[in-house]
Amino acid sequence: MKQLIQSFKTGETILENIPAPQVKRGQVLIQTTRTLVSLGTERMLVEFGKANLLDKARQQPDKVKQVIDKVKSDGLMPTVEAVFSKLEQPLPLGYCNVGKVLAVGEGVSEFKVGDRVASNGPHAEIVSVPKNLVAAIPDNISDEEAAFTVIGSIGLQGIRLLNPTLGETVVVIGLGLIGLITAELLKANGCKVIGVDLDEQKLTIAKSKGIIPINPFTTDVVKFVEEETNGIGADGVIITASAKTNDIISQAAQMSRKRGRIVLVGVIGLNLSRAEFYEKELTFQVSCSYGPGRYDEFYEQRGQDYPLPFVRWTEKRNFETVLQAISSGILDVKSLITERVSLEDYNKIYGNIGASKSIASILVYPEGGAVDKSATVTLTEGSFKGSKGVIGIIGAGNFTKMTMLPALKGTGAGYKYMASAGGVTGTALAKKYGFTHSTTNYKEILQDQDVDLVMITTRHDLHAGMVQESLEAKKHVFVEKPLALNIVQLAEVVDAYQAYAFPYGLTLSVGFNRRFSPHIQKMKELIGTSPAPINIVATMNAGFIPDNVWVHDLQIGGGRIIGEACHYLDLMVYLTGSPIKSICMNALGTNPEENTDNVSILVKFENGSNGVVNYFANGHKSYSKERVELYSQGRTLIMDNFRKTEGFGFKGFSKLKTGQDKGHAAQFKKLIESLKLGGEPLIPMYELVNITLASFAAINSLKTGNWVDVNMSEYLKKSSHGAVLA
Fold this sequence. Notes:
Blueprint: E1 2-6, E2 13-17, E3 27-37, H1 39-50, H2 53-59, H3 61-74, H4 76-88, E4 91-92, E5 97-104, E6 116-119, E7 126-130, E8 134-136, H5 143-146, H6 149-162, E9 169-173, H7 177-188, E10 192-196, H8 200-208, E11 212-214, H9 221-228, E12 234-239, H10 247-255, E13 256-264, H11 274-280, E14 283-286, H12 297-300, H13 315-328, E15 337-342, H14 347-350, E16 360-364, E17 376-378, E18 390-394, H15 398-408, E19 414-419, H16 424-433, E20 437-439, H17 443-447, E21 453-456, H18 463-472, E22 476-479, H19 487-504, E23 508-510, H20 518-527, E24 535-541, H21 559-576, E25 580-587, E26 599-605, E27 610-616, E28 626-632, E29 635-640, E30 644-648, E31 655-657, H22 664-676, H23 685-704, E32 708-709, H24 712-718
Parallel strand pairs: 9-10, 9-12, 10-11, 12-13, 13-14, 15-16, 18-19, 18-21, 19-20, 21-22, 22-23, 24-27
Antiparallel strand pairs: 1-2, 1-4, 3-5, 3-7, 3-16, 5-6, 6-8, 17-20, 24-28, 25-26, 25-32, 26-27, 28-29, 29-30, 30-31
Helix pairs in contact: 3-4, 6-7, 6-13, 9-10, 15-22, 18-19, 21-23
């Protein structure tokens, strides 16, 4: 199928051929008939993409600060690589979509195949959208009219925050598409509306809708509003303009009455004058997109609606209200359409979008069978017959882009499939690294006989199930940590491993890369393969992640202990040469949560070694992220951030220095070599289970406040096959 994307690196707008998305649980699959181009937002994105690096930096000073902080913590070259990688990431354009339902996911009962719906889907021939961002279209509304649903809800949410009453005077500053819709809805609400813009064409349209038009070039807006309100001032001001100047917010304050309300829907300079707001006791509020529920993972992605008696107007109910307004005739959007362009001719809009005088541009899509609905697209021709080390990657997120693919270079792997949920990021990465296929259906990887190794880098809750499916498909598997999020998932993985790995010579690897770093390898060499009991103190200055990020969600990410601190449990198992026997975890604070990310973990090993894992999220970014201290027989090793290792008391060794190397490249090289040699596990399955169980035990210890045994023998007895894991 075809989809419009924007390149921030080149500034080019591209109609890309990507695989069609698959419908997921709680989502609606839609074949697009019309989309509306949001000229304000999309002009900003296109012009940002065309700007040079210096201008990009000037436009985003907050991002520049983040870059400077990253240079301090990670160094110059890793930061430069991260910045350019971010710029290479394509951005899907558009958010005003109309089409017909092709399929509904599990848990969706509000829609059926064939329904006409409006959604916030992008400019793409087929989209998959969560049900709370989809609204049914009344029969008397055309697809073109319905395309205004989402952008109309942005204006409607600004009005709801302003809370105007019958007879009030409201000024709308900026009569672009959102501004004109906002002004017309305010008129329908019984308000006297004054519209402010520099464009005479927009002022003419506003006047035709009963809105009082004002051009600030020819009229003093503040004085005009005062005269129009008999010296009282505007009851409310809604700013839908996009400008860098601070003059707009100042004018809004000056034209407001005492205790007036100002709502910002657009993007302007916000250097507020305290005096202007203080003297009148003005209220100022910023409107968030379509309404309550926006950017709420539970509402949007999981379909958990807010109860109507307590949250009357959600973003979906705002969508439905805009559609009702169009259906009843109180909102006329047909008059705003200035051009209709076929999807293939998109450059008529985007080629010179900065100079466009259009109010509303509609993209028209091909009908029916003209759309390619395949889940996989072939990017280049290639044959993998008879070769070993052919991979298919499931997941095209940041780890795949920034870590896995660069580390796989030089391994000799054959790149066949890149799978991603939406298809856009997966296709971009597939093209960059020479994959022959991009897909949105990971099961095609499992069914392809060419593929030897499936590499899984999805969100954590999908790991165990995909590992099980891949083993059942008789594939070698690499999965980024963690292996599983709970004991049930782990048992299913173990059962699949026992059923398929032994008979078919398959391997299962987990992304525990630290043990492959040259620094850890050197430490292991220095203490020997059969060391006496040792003490290890490992500290991870992990950094703060906001509570609403998915890694903290116990159902999706498992929390940062199960999801990341497991790296250091593996590292200690490797250095001690011994399984973990028992574990005790203590968290920061008087009321620690299960998914806390400030903990100290005490670890006992079967050979008598001791370990301490300090996993902290409250440290400073400029301090080293990772540090390992090892104490043994009057000797000490200190590893700092995988850049420098110092030895004290070791004959012939004092220091090892490298660029930062956490062992990813070495791990992947060994993995691909293993496949070509017939498949040897990089880490014994017994250790993988032991480490995973230990991370679960740490959480249980936090709940009870006691030591928890990591009893492998008892666990293995519960496995349905009961085989000894090699």
